[in-house]
Design a protein that fits this description.
Layout lengths: L2 H18 L5 H8 L4 H29 L1 H21 L3 H28 L6 H26 L5 H23 L24 H5 L2 H16 L1 H4 L2 H8 L5 H26 L4 H24 L4 H22 L3 H8 L5 H18 L3 H7 L1 H23 L4 H4 L26
Helix pairs in contact: 1-6, 1-7, 2-3, 3-4, 3-5, 3-16, 4-5, 4-7, 5-16, 6-12, 9-16, 9-18, 11-17, 12-14, 13-14, 13-18, 15-16, 17-18
């Protein structure tokens, strides 16, 4: 990595470390410390997602026109203010407004940092750069959550204020680090798709006319809805209501998910980086299908709490392996699909798709609690749908977009040797 990439990755890891201090405890803070009802405490997460949905549609054009550095700095400062305000807020309205600002700031950072990684990498290094980013994010979140769990105490509101202060400081550290990054003088992306003159207009209009990108966004929505959207909502509800696992088992399951990512990330990277991306995503769909089958088994193992717990933890670990396969696949593909000068727009669009999937994820809670096996069956078929959508997407990609390793293969030029002398043939 060059100096710029090292600083980007360090800032990304420290930010994830700060976020890890507060994310697992946000509901507890709103409900038990500030005394909000379960309805309003849940609304805090809605406000968080709403901030992202408001900010992201406006982010891409700003990144492409002004560059990602000022966007990251501005988003980090806004998120820092939101974190401090959330720690100081006591009423419903201030808490919701603070969550709105914090959610907007965090969401805007994602496509801006992704664009910085794209600008500072090549087609050969981009896959590993995004794999490292995902690895550092999960490591930072895990360590932050672990330390935060040792600090937090519902009987001491000041302990939560300490968590939000640490998070706010990490956002400011990110802003300071990014301010020192020297970006390329010319924002060029190696291997970028040339602008198509037939696609009139710009921004969202051009993106919506890009058939491969639209299919990729549909696939991304299903991926995020079926995995990330269920982690802390539907799947957790299924585990506690149907599988009857204890909260401590749920904690072990989340730890198994993070552990699987941290342990498997670079092993998986070696297996997927030279293979077709569409087939890698399809394989993730099949792995998650197995994960949902095992989750369903945990709900049927009422006779053995240990078997149910083991099955539930295995489910989360399998999801982690799938995530490790996606991290070096999805983000680099966004960059390869983006036309010249539109990397920020495409990154923002994909981040918006992710936020929409996460916002709709909690709808699975009611189904998981009331009809648990129907819930499992639906997401089992959704995972099979991921495999089908991925293979369809492969037909829309160029060979180099589907497998960037092809671009690194040098064509072999055969130089003819000296012509053999032709001896005269005697005819009888």
């Amino acid at each position: 990595m060059g100096a710029a990439m090292r600083r980007i990755q360090a800032g990304n890891a420290l930010t994830a470390f700060g976020i890890g201090f507060t994310v697992p405890f946000l509901y507890i803070y709103a409900a038990q410390v500030r005394g909000l009802s379960s309805l309003w405490a849940g609304a805090t997460f809605i406000a968080f997602a709403l901030g992202a949905l408001i900010a992201l549609p406006l982010t891409g054009r700003v990144i492409d026109r002004r560059g990602p550095v000022p966007v990251v700095i501005g988003a980090a400062v806004a998120a820092s203010v939101g974190a401090i305000a959330l720690g100081l807020s006591t009423g419903v309205v201030p808490i919701l407004l603070s969550a709105l600002l914090l959610g907007a700031g965090q969401a805007v950072m994602q496509p801006a940092l992704a664009t910085m990684i794209v600008w500072c990498s090549t087609k050969e290094t981009r896959t590993r750069a995004f794999a490292l980013q995902f690895f550092m994010q999960n490591l930072g979140l895990g360590i932050g959550g672990l330390i935060g769990g040792l600090i937090v105490d519902t009987s001491r509101p000041g302990s939560f204020m300490l968590l939000f202060t640490i998070e706010a400081l990490m956002f400011l550290v990110l802003a300071g680090i990014i301010a020192t990054v020297r970006m390329p003088q010319v924002a060029s992306v190696q291997g970028a798709v040339a602008k198509d003159a037939a696609q009139s207009g710009g921004g969202w209009k051009r993106l919506l006319e890009h058939k491969a990108m639209v299919q990729f966004c549909v696939l991304g929505f299903v991926l995020f809805f079926a995995c990330y959207g269920q982690f802390e909502s539907g799947l957790s509800a299924f585990g506690t209501e149907s599988a009857k696992v204890s909260p401590s088992v749920l904690g072990f399951a989340l730890a198994a998910n993070t552990g699987a990512i941290v342990v498997a990330q670079f092993v998986v990277l070696r297996l997927v980086e030279n293979r077709r991306r569409s087939r890698v995503i399809a394989l993730v769909g099949l792995i998650w299908t197995v994960a949902w089958v095992i989750a369903g088994f945990s709900g049927l193992a009422h006779g053995s709490a240990m078997v149910a717990a083991a099955a539930f933890i295995t489910t989360y670990a399998l999801f982690g392996i799938g995530e490790a396969m996606l991290s070096p696949t999805l983000a680099p593909l966004v960059a390869d699909l983006a036309p010249e000068g539109s990397v920020g727009q495409y990154n923002s669009a994909f981040a918006l798709v992710k936020q929409m999937a996460l916002a709709l994820g909690p709808v699975g809670v009611l189904l998981a609690a009331s009809l648990p096996m129907v819930y499992i069956t639906i997401f089992l078929f959704v995972s099979l749908g991921i495999a089908w959508l991925a293979l369809r997407l492969g037909g829309q990609l160029t060979p180099e977009q589907d497998n960037p390793a092809l671009a690194r293969i040098e064509p072999v030029h055969v130089h003819p040797g000296p012509k053999a002398a032709v001896e005269p043939v005697a005819f009888a």
